[in-house]
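#lab-general

N.A. 3:47 PM
ok so I finally got the sequence cleaned up, no stray characters, all 185 residues accounted for. can someone with queue access submit it? mine expired

B.Y. 3:52 PM
send it over

N.A. 3:53 PM
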Amino acid sequence: MASFFTIRALRATFLRRSATIPLFIVLGTVLFGCGAMPSDFELRDRFFQKQSDFVRLVQMSNQDQHVTVIDSHATYLDSDVSWPRKDIGFSEERWNEYRRMFRKLGVDGGLSRRMDYPFAVFLNAYASGGVLGSSGKGYVYSEKSLSPLVNSLDVMPRDLYNKNRGHAIVFEALTNNWYMFREEY
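B.Y. 4:20 PM
back already:
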């Protein structure tokens, strides 16, 4: 099961480099998925049942801010996104603690600190698709307001997606500093 950050990283690598036709075919046909996209109700219910654990996960991430991506299989540092590498950003014990939290919270795609939202922590609960088209859904902690806000993430606003040339991200407020998000490419 690939996380949404992995799909984003593959896409970015693919778009940065002059890919050969065989690479294009391989990457284009690889499909990442983890079942049906959870509904807003499911995500909201999970969040409010385990809110203190979600807060704990963000606190852990704040202690490890130099690690910009953490999932069950890889980490990215703010200074090194190569993988595999010896310095994963913290101890193996700490990584196992993150893995336990991811499983407990249903955050299968791990967490990420993104350049486009440097003040936010994204917790990726769902990712599907591949290099050329993907969608993700999850939670965001941000002390700055996020927009655009919508009343439901169950349906992506096509006008926003089309306006942004095939990319859209929207947010739904949960509680103070907490949101759910949906993103599509």
